[in-house]
């Protein structure tokens, strides 16, 4: 198979399209972010890369807290809106029904099937972006998205972003059990 060089690019497939929430100037604000992932198991942590001029980053730094809200695919229009427009110019505090958990300063989105409430523990300057590592203080999940006490990806139906094509997708079919198929 022939490979074609594309140069350094941020192509990692797929990327979750989450809604990052932060309180800015005493109002909930949300932005869409796809550059995120699990950072640690103990303590549970995630990382989110945010462009340095993001309004949401200002709120994270002010309060030391944020939320990572997993949008379902039926929320695509609102999620895309939150990625297009900055809270500096558009008030996004009424787009979703917000609630607050343990930390009291990280707005969470009621309509999202999964919410991670986070305390910011590290900021890393990476040039154009700041990598924020957040310790997950609490996880909230819609009861209807559980199967046998665990999250069911089919019921969560997370919104997925595909870099390069700039398109949203949803998860595909089950292929094989992890940590099992490789033993065959």
Structure description:
It is a single chain. The chain is mostly beta strands and 184 residues long. It is built from three helices and 14 strands. The strands form four sheets. A seven-stranded antiparallel β-sheet has the order 3-2-6-9-10-5-4. A three-stranded antiparallel β-sheet has the order 1-13-14, with no helix packed on it. The protein is globular.
Low-confidence stretches: none
Report the helical percentage. Answer: 10-25%
Shape: globular
Radius of gyration, CA atoms, in whole angstroms: 17 Å
Distance between the termini: 27 Å
The total strand number stands at 14
> What are the secondary-structure elements, in order, as H or E?
EEEEEHEHEEEEEEHEE
How large is the share of residues in beta strands? 35-45%
**Given the helix and strand composition, which structural class is it?**
mainly beta
Outline:
The protein is mainly β. It contains 3 helices and 14 strands. The chain starts with 14 loop residues before the first strand and ends in a 15-residue tail after the last strand.
Offer a few descriptive terms.
single chain; 184 residues; mainly beta; seven-stranded antiparallel sheet; 14 strands; 40% strand; globular
Indicate the topology.
Blueprint: E1 15-16, E2 18-24, E3 27-33, E4 36-40, E5 45-51, H1 55-63, E6 65-70, H2 76-84, E7 98-99, E8 108-109, E9 114-125, E10 129-141, E11 146-147, E12 150-151, H3 153-156, E13 160-162, E14 167-169
Antiparallel strand pairs: 1-13, 2-3, 2-6, 4-5, 5-10, 6-9, 7-8, 9-10, 11-12, 13-14
């Amino acid at each position: 198979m022939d490979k074609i060089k594309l140069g350094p690019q941020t192509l990692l497939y797929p990327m979750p399209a989450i809604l990052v929430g932060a309180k800015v100037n005493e109002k909930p604000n949300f932005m869409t972010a796809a550059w995120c992932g699990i950072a640690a198991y103990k303590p549970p942590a995630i990382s989110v890369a945010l462009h340095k001029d993001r309004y949401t980053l200002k709120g994270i730094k002010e309060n030391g807290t944020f939320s990572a809200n997993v949008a379902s695919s039926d929320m695509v229009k609102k999620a895309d809106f939150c990625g297009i427009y900055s809270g500096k110019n558009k008030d996004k505090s009424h787009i979703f029904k917000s609630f607050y958990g343990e930390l009291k300063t990280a707005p969470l989105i009621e309509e999202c099937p999964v919410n991670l409430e986070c305390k910011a523990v590290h900021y890393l300057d990476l040039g154009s972006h700041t990598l924020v590592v957040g310790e997950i203080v609490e996880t909230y999940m819609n009861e209807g998205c559980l199967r046998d006490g665990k999250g069911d990806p089919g019921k969560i139906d997370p919104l997925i972003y595909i870099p390069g094509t700039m398109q949203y997708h949803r998860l595909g079919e089950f292929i094989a059990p992890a940590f099992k198929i490789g033993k065959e």
